[in-house]
Write a structure and sequence with these properties.
This protein is an all-alpha fold and 78 residues long. The protein has one domain. It is 72% helix and 0% strand. It contains four helices and no strands. The radius of gyration is 12 Å and the shape is globular. The N and C termini lie far apart (32 Å).
Length: 78
């Protein structure tokens, strides 16, 4: 069994360290959302994480990451 709560704490610390780098923030928010999803958290906790990831991806102008965040279980186009 994975330590999803520990992973979320790690990613939250990563957010603090990477503040201002919207591409890395997008990836980190996506990791937080996926860790919470694997932990079985409710949609109400997942949705804001996915929204923040999408917002950061849009700011970074990374369409591949935006697609991945809209449909996280489908690989982004290359």
């Amino acid at each position: 069994m994975k330590d999803h709560l520990g992973a979320v704490r790690h990613y939250e610390e990563e957010l603090r360290l990477r503040s201002g780098n919207v591409l890395e923030e997008a990836k980190t928010w996506l990791n937080i959302a996926l860790s919470r999803e694997e932990a079985g958290d409710a949609y109400e906790l997942l949705a804001p994480c996915f929204q923040k990831a999408l917002s950061c991806a849009q700011q970074a102008q990374r369409p591949q990451l935006q697609v991945q965040e809209h449909v996280p279980h489908i690989p982004a186009p290359q």
